[in-house]
Write a structure and sequence with these properties.
CATH superfamily of the largest domain: Glutamine synthetase/guanido kinase, catalytic domain
Distance between the termini: 75 Å
Strand content: 15-25%
Largest sheet: 9 strands, mixed
Number of strands: 15
Shape: globular
Structural class: alpha+beta
């Protein structure tokens, strides 16, 4: 029996014509597991019509955080609008990719699909009259191999050749990203030796989450072609800054207006009451979502004072020791009015991070939370007693503390759903227990010869 022909939409028509005109022989269907690892399987052009119409089945029980073995069948439906040719693959018998939505055999969205979790929160925002734009700044290190932390250079912030020896790798990465339709705003050497940053131009949150997943793969693929290894590990070097993923964000109305902007703000911030309640929501729920924005044991080696990572739950305009910053690059300009959440690291699952970040902000709007006073001091220079006297709270200090707060959070359970929430708790409890039981090299060096 012949498979049904997929209903031809403009996006699907574009995909079919692009496959034919570019000699594409393999189409990779992409999705992520709950922890944000990219998963992929390839189909040939002859299967694309069927993939659009009926989806492609796979074993969900083999995917981290998906389904149990007795209910393992899952179906991946490619989204035609995400079709892109992979520029690092050969042009002959080329390779393209599409992101997928995961559904059950009954045709229902799968509750364990992180992309669906983000879509749910975006739908809630739309019901409130908003859409979310985000622009993340992802940092990463280049090392000489996956088993070494030997840097490629000793450059610092904004350095050029000869200190920035990886400028060619970074350039080729930017070209590859732009070749896949992902606009880049900035690229430069970061503060630590062999640390780099490429910033993506803001867009809607779902497209950006797809772009972040693509970005991480492109950075690694281009590095390998140059004989280097790229890592998004939050803190690979103990005596240097870690890798962050500062997330710039703003809500826009359905009319295209920036809901964060108010030229008549009586406090002179150019922030609307919506923006202030949104920030207050981020500050209120940050301890509860930190397990998602910083999901690994190593993430908390970055979140310590003195290494340009936020620890204290405060907001400010110029102060980079704050958790939430209101950038002042273009004061008074409506489109540029946004906030910056500085705690996430680039090893996160971007779908879940954008979901909990937006959900916290929307909760702040719904609850009409009041924005606390701007924090203008250098928090790192204050003692614990001073911070306590000012009522300054801190982010969780370990994955163990973070997962406890996440597990007890009604909002996180509501935003992510029972499936993702419960799996995430189980997985991170296991990671934390394994870490506590491990005898590290530091302990052996410190204690073995003297105890």
């Amino acid at each position: 029996m012949q498979a049904p022909i997929a209903q031809l939409t403009p996006e699907r028509d574009y995909v079919l014509k692009s496959i034919q005109s570019n000699g594409i022989h393999f189409i990779r269907l992409w999705f992520t597991d709950v922890l944000g690892s990219l998963k992929s399987f390839a189909v040939t052009p002859s299967e694309i019509d069927n993939a659009f119409e009926e989806g492609m089945g796979f074993d969900g029980s083999s995917i981290e955080g998906f389904s149990r073995i007795q209910e393992s069948d899952m179906i991946a439906f490619p989204e035609a609008s995400t079709f892109q040719i992979l520029p690092w693959r050969p042009t002959e018998n080329g390779v393209a990719r599409m992101f997928c939505d995961i559904k059950t055999p009954e045709g229902q969205p799968f509750a364990g699909d992180p992309r669906y979790a983000l879509k749910r929160v975006l739908c809630k925002a739309a019901d409130m009259g908003f859409m979310l734009n985000v622009g993340p700044e992802l940092e990463f290190f280049y090392f000489d191999s996956p088993t070494s932390t030997v840097p490629l250079d000793n450059g610092g912030y904004f350095d050029l050749t000869p200190l920035d020896l990886a400028s060619d790798i970074r350039r080729d990465t930017v070209l590859a990203l732009e070749g896949m339709g992902i606009p880049v705003e900035y690229s430069h050497h970061e503060v630590a030796p062999s640390q780099h940053e490429i910033d993506l131009r803001y867009t809607d949150a779902l497209s950006m989450a797809d772009a972040v997943m693509t970005y991480r793969l492109v950075v690694k693929e281009v590095a390998m072609k140059h004989g280097a290894y790229a890592t998004f590990m939050p803190k690979p070097l103990s005596d240097q800054n870690g890798n962050g993923m500062h997330v710039h964000q703003s809500l826009f109305t359905t009319d295209g207006d920036n809901a964060f902007f108010d030229a008549k703000d009586p406090q002179g911030y150019n922030l609307s009451s919506i923006a202030k309640s949104y920030i207050a929501g981020i500050l209120r729920y940050a301890p509860e979502f930190t397990a998602v924005t910083n999901q690994f044991v190593n993430s908390y080696k970055r979140l310590i004072p003195g290494y340009e990572a936020p620890v204290y739950i405060t907001w400010a305009r110029r102060n980079r020791s704050a958790l939430v910053r209101v950038p002042l690059y273009k004061p008074g300009k409506e489109l540029a009015t946004r906030i910056e959440l500085r705690s996430p690291d680039p090893a996160c699952n971007p779908y879940l991070v954008f979901a909990v970040m937006l959900g916290a902000g929307l909760a702040g709007i719904e609850q009409e939370l009041q924005l606390p006073q701007e924090f203008t001091s250098n928090a790192y220079a204050l003692s614990a007693q001073d911070l306590l006297a000012k009522g300054i709270q801190t982010l969780p200090g370990s994955l163990g503390d973070a997962i406890t707060l996440f597990e007890e959070s009604e909002l996180m359970h509501q935003l992510l759903g029972e499936h993702i929430h419960s799996y995430f708790v189980r997985n991170k409890r296991e990671e934390w227990a394994a870490y506590l039981a491990d005898v590290s090299e530091w302990e052996l060096k410190r204690y073995l010869s003297v105890l």
